[in-house]
Amino acid sequence: MTDFAATRRAFHLPQGIAYLDGNSLGPMPVAARDRVARMMAEEWSEMLIGGWNKAGWYVQPRTVGDRIARLIGAGPEQVVMGDTLSIKVFQAVSAALRLRPGRRVILSDSGNFPSDLYVADGLARAVGAELRVVAPDDVASAITDNLAVLMLTEVDYRTGRRHDMAALTARAHEVGALTVWDLAHSAGALDVDLLGADADFAVGCTYKYLNGGPGAPAFIWIHPRHADAAQPILQGWMGHDAPFAFDLDYRPAAGIERMRVGTPPVIALAALDAALDVWDGVSLSDLRARSVQLTEAFIAGTGAACPDVALNSPRDPALRGSQVSLRHPQAYAVMQALIAAGVIGDFRAPDVLRFGFAPLFNDLDDVERAVETLARVLRDGSWNDEAFHRMSAVT
C-alpha cells in the first residue's frame, strides 16, 4: 500500500493552505531546493562545460524520461524530455501526419486545451491539412476513413471529463488513423497505460501533477512500432544522429532520441528529477483509488452544502480525471474569495471553479476545509467584495 502521509510530507505546503491547484502547478517538493542548489554548486559551478559529460547533463532528457515512462504505462527508452508541451504537440502531430500520406484530416474536440488546437490549426494550414473540431461526445462518430490523426487530451482541462483512450485508439486504428494523446491532466493523476491502450504518440507537461516546477520541460512518447519511422517536421540539433559531427544534412537519431530539439534545460531537469523521487514506491492503482476517494468526497460535500453551484464534471468517477469543476455565474470572484480564505483552486472562463485533487499531497482534511469554506463564502456573500472582482492577468 502506498503511504500517502509520507508522500504529503515530501512537499513544501505553506501552513494554513488547502492547495487544490496542483492540476495547474504542483507545489515544490522539499528535495527540489537542495537538488538544484547542489547541481549549481557541484556541477555548473565546478565542472563548467564539463558537466555535459561528467554530470550526465547530455543524457538527462532520456534518463528522466525513463522515470516518467513508468507513470504513463510506457517502456524504457521510449520517453524523452525537453522543450514545451506545445512544441511536443507539434512534433507528434506532424510526425503522425507524415506516417499517413494521402490523408489530411486531424480530428480533435472542443474540450481540448486551446493551445493544442492552435498548434494543430497552424500546422494544418502550413501543410494543406484540415483540423476538424467536434463536441467531446461526438468524437467516436467523427472517426471516418479519411482521418489521419486523432489528437485528444485525455482529461478535459475545464470539466475533468475523461476520454476512453483504449476504445478511441482502437476505433482510430480501425480506419487506419493514428492517435496523439495529451497527458497534461493525466500523468501523475491517473493510472495511464499507453502500451496497454495501444496508443501511437503521447505528450505531456511536468509542472502539474508531476510537480516539476514552473516551466518544467515537457515529454514525448512514441510507440516502438513507429519510433524509427517517425519524421517530425521540427528537426533539431539534439535530435540528429551525430550532433557533434556538425553535419549540414539532417539525419534522425534512432528511436525517441530523434524527438529531441534544442539544448536541454538542465536546471529544470534537476528539479524535476527531485520531484520524481517522490514517486518511488507509489502504486498507480493506489493513486487512482485515492483520486476517486477525494473527488467523490468533494462532490458529495459540495452537493449537500453548496446549492448555489452546479457540478460541471462527470458524476461517474470512471468518466472523470482527478479534478472537479463547479459552475457559478460569479466564479472568478468566488474563487478569489476562496483563495483569500486559504483554499486555492482556480478559475476557467466563463464560469468555472476548478479544483484539482493531487493524490500525493491532498487528503480528506483538504476536502473538508474546501467544502466548508466554499459553503461559507457563498452563504455570507463575501465573494461580492469589489477586490475579488478585479481580474488578474493569470486566472
From TrEMBL:
Its EC number is 3.7.1.3. Its cofactor is pyridoxal 5'-phosphate. Keywords: Hydrolase, Pyridine nucleotide biosynthesis, Pyridoxal phosphate. Pyridoxal 5'-phosphate binds at L85, S86, F113, P114, S115, D116, T153, D182, H185, Y207, W237, T263. Transmembrane segments: none annotated. The keyword Amino-acid biosynthesis does not apply. Pathway: Amino-acid degradation; L-kynurenine degradation; L-alanine and anthranilate from L-kynurenine: step 1/1; Cofactor biosynthesis; NAD(+) biosynthesis; quinolinate from L-kynurenine: step 2/3. The keyword Hydrolase applies. It catalyses: 3-hydroxy-L-kynurenine + H2O = 3-hydroxyanthranilate + L-alanine + H(+); L-kynurenine + H2O = anthranilate + L-alanine + H(+). One of its GO terms (molecular function) is kynureninase activity. GO terms for cellular component: cytoplasm. Pfam families: KYNU_C. GO terms for biological process: anthranilate metabolic process; L-kynurenine catabolic process; L-tryptophan catabolic process to kynurenine; NAD+ biosynthetic process; quinolinate biosynthetic process. The modification N6-(pyridoxal phosphate)lysine is found at K208. PANTHER family: KYNURENINASE (PTHR14084). Homodimer. Belongs to the kynureninase family. Catalyzes the cleavage of L-kynurenine (L-Kyn) and L-3-hydroxykynurenine (L-3OHKyn) into anthranilic acid (AA) and 3-hydroxyanthranilic acid (3-OHAA), respectively. This is Kynureninase.
